[in-house]
Fold:
Amino acid sequence: MANKNKKFSRRSPFAAALVLLAGLIVSGGSYVAASAAVSNAAPKSEVDQAQVDTGKRIFLANCASCHGKNAEGTQNAPSLIGVGSASVDFQVGTGRMPMQASGPQAEVKPVQFKQEDIDALAAYVASLAPGPESPTEEYLARKGDATKGGELFRINCAMCHNAVGAGGALTEGKYAPALRETSAKNIYQAMVTGPQNMPVFSNTNLSPEQKTDIITYLQYVQENPSIGGDELGNLGPVVEGLWVWLGMLGLIIVITIWLGAKSN
Amino acid sequence: MAKNPKDLAVVESAPEHDYSAGLAVIAPDKIADPGIEPHRVRMTDKSVKHEKAAARQVAALFLVSILGSAFAIWAYYAFPFEAEVAGSLRLNTIFLGLGITLGLFGIGIGAVHWAKTLMPDAEVAEERHLTRGSEEVRAAAVEIIRLADEESGFSRRKLIRRTLYGALALFPIPAIVLFSDLGPNPKDSLRHTMWGKGKLRLTRDPDGTAIKASDVQIGSVFHVIPEGLVDLEAPDLLNEKAKAAVLLVRLDPSEITQKQRDWGYDGIVAYSKICTHVGCPVALYEQHTHHLLCPCHQSTFDLANDCAVVFGPASRPLPQLKIEVDAEGYLVAPGDFEEPVGPSFWERKA
Structure:
């Protein structure tokens, strides 16, 4: 609301409608209006205590057995204090959490919660301590420079995720997932929160503009088919060589047998 | 010439079983020679119907070749390569290649099928002869060499012979001298990096912006190049970057063991990114295990323990870069690495 107020002068034709809207909001509750004014700096919407309470109930029923009753962490799972709403939305919104079984890494699986429940969980975890927040729709709609994004991706991300985001193996059963179908929101969330063993790429490391460039590059790669035909998983010369060996060598053997066989 | 050279080609056919076994051990119970399989008459020789069918098949294969070649010519014009259309090159090469393949394949398969089904299939055994020439042939060869020596004076003219030996011996040497182009000798450039200039700020790869200590959160990783590297021109840019690239992370100080607290700053530590095995960039950083993995041969280093090798073929820890914080809060390296970065080389001590 505060953002809207800034954009319109009192003489604007929208002024009357805006005054009416502001009046409704004020009458709706002074607390909400006050917090909306304060939240000018942060894109985060006002804290909804009811949502936080709902989130806490969901947390106690589904998450607390591993993360502790107050999200302080246990031997089995890390503390969630300060991980922020972006982390919850990423982990639960991609089905990684709650984990199906303990293992080297939480795997993507069908999402277990409705989006409003995920939002409530995120609000609860965010209420424990400040942490990274999910990007706004406005931010995600921006387009960056795919060329710059490609260079940043190759320097910061490609060693684990492969130069075109095909993913790759790490140590002891861990892996960097493929980014061929990852949404812009989840890419951003992963960069700011550093899920699992991925390092954190905060805004002091990669600026929001640079993150946009990286997302634009990945979207370019996702949307444009490979010029060279079948990608064979984009895993490089070993896979391509294996296919040539199996396919071509097999064909050569078949032809050789035919050449040597006597006609019936 | 003492003899007609044609005589040299005349070779007596070998007498039956006149072979020397040499040193080979002849097993007494060796499998008996089964002889040649009984001749089986082909269907195409038995029935005119099959013969005609085979003839049609061969002609059809040659026709496939004709169509393939024509298709290739058509495809070249039907799918032109346009510089701005990325997929056009793929279509162009696929269809052109397909046509040429059919063109060649039809000829080859057709010719083999022709030979196998229609050409005479009488079986012929060709006996091998001895490798050793007959006495006359050998005597003739010796005579030719003797005559050549006599006529050229090779044995008689010592000066000519010795200078020829010298010329032949020296002839390959220039090829060896060319190898010096693989140099120049690196001298001591393997022992120093750009950080040796001293008091250089740590900057982000690739834009070269300086990094403040407060920018580096726990769990984050920065890919670092020395201040001023981005101003270098090729080939110095890549030569210096290949040695000076650094990985910067911040660890929880309580997790850090051993000396590196003295060389880092409040949990921030910087290590060479060049693997001590064969020099790949080691950059796969796992935040929670604080392990660094090299993508080439899976050498794994523990960042919290002086980058000790925990797995893989690397034999030494990654060299650490000592860092400090300057008056403005930026990270600086007071000097160079204390040891050469990257893989072992001949003159490197330990």
